Amino acid sequence: MHVDRTRADLAADGVRERVPDSEAPPSPTGVATNLRTAALWESVSRVAEDLQADIDRPLRVLDLGGGTGGVAVALATLGHQVTVVDPSPDALAALGRRAEEAGVADRIIGIQGDSSNLDTVHPQAQADLVCCHGVLEFVDDPARAVRALAGALAPDGVLSLVVAQRLSVVLARALAGQFGQAQHALTTPEGRWGPADPLPRRFDRAAVCELVEEAGLEVIDTHGVRIFSDFVPSAFVDSEAERQALLDLERAASSHPDFAVLAELGASLHVLAGRH
């Protein structure tokens, strides 16, 4: 069974847990409307900013599985040209509407496809930034998907790969008193806590880095996303000042050397890679 499914498909099935929150765009102030989304956007926007400074022009971006354009529209708003490849026609239609509303329709292209035919629907070796956020959990063959992403990457480009982490769900299940589920997630190859788990698989850092390196890329950086956010009660972040303080803490912890081990507990792992 092919499972290159969009977040729109999952939402229709009632799947919510651990599906990355990349569908909410940043607010005009630069702080995303969703706290979880904001933590990811902080990481992606920094990558785009650094890349643009290096090549001195707007980026050519490929967003595989970009859905309705949470990341794509935000990047297009910054002036970049973004191609979203997604298997869902409904998601692509929503992408078009969102791009029109944001005034960036001329900088976004939506193409129906997935990792299995990426080499035929998108030019090879031309994307400065390739985003693949919350997709590897669902594809039939993650290694093949990463090879396809590597093929689309320009010689000096960067792959931004975000995956759900195994250790995060182990801790979350344990804190919820579901000790059997925590052990199941820790010890099974897929990192799932049981049959009702909405994700087909989760990853640890070593597994993701191995996929990237086998695809001929070199890992540039790895850091946790949402190290604290998923464990902080919502009552503690009910004001904009508290939300911003938590985001600042996330940013500082994700790059702090003494917190490297805690990055493994982030809900997601953000891996940056480029060519050797």
From TrEMBL:
Listed transmembrane segments: none
One GO biological-process annotation of the entry reads: methylation
In this chain, composition skew of type Basic and acidic residues spans: 1-21
Q: List the InterPro entries.
A: SAM-dependent_MTases_sf (IPR029063)
Q: Which Gene3D superfamilies match?
A: Vaccinia Virus protein VP39 (3.40.50.150)
Q: Which GO terms describe its molecular function?
A: methyltransferase activity
Key words of the record:
Methyltransferase, Transferase
The record's region (Disordered) falls at 1-31
Q: Name one Pfam family in it.
A: Methyltransf_23
In terms of PANTHER family, this protein maps to: TRANS-ACONITATE 2-METHYLTRANSFERASE-RELATED (PTHR43861)
Protein name per Swiss-Prot or TrEMBL: Methyltransferase
Q: Which organism is it from?
A: Arsenicicoccus piscis
